[in-house]
User: What shape does this take?
Amino acid sequence: KAADILAAHGLPPTVADARFAKPFDVDLVENLARNHAVLITLEEGSEGGFGSLVGHHLARTGLLDHVRFRPMTLPDIFIDHNTQDAQYDQAGLTAPHIVQTALSALGVALSDQAVSGQTA
Assistant: This one.
């Protein structure tokens, strides 16, 4: 859904499924970093997972100097029992959160309505 919202505003993203943290797909990550302005990792785990591996690799290879990297993970807070949608919202891992992260990294401002994918 985040990809659809961004594409509707002329910012078509590449969505890549890394599938596994290990073995680390060096070619995929380096290709994405070299050919995109922003690289966002999204995971349903805590800090220290796949996003950390990507950040470490980008820093070690110098690619971090060429791409705006934003890892998105579960926050270090207790999330109360609730619906899955409510928990993702509290964690900041919904489509509007992803869109806002991408736009912020690009320095692009859109209305809250546009970010959420709502039309007037």
The mean pLDDT is 90.
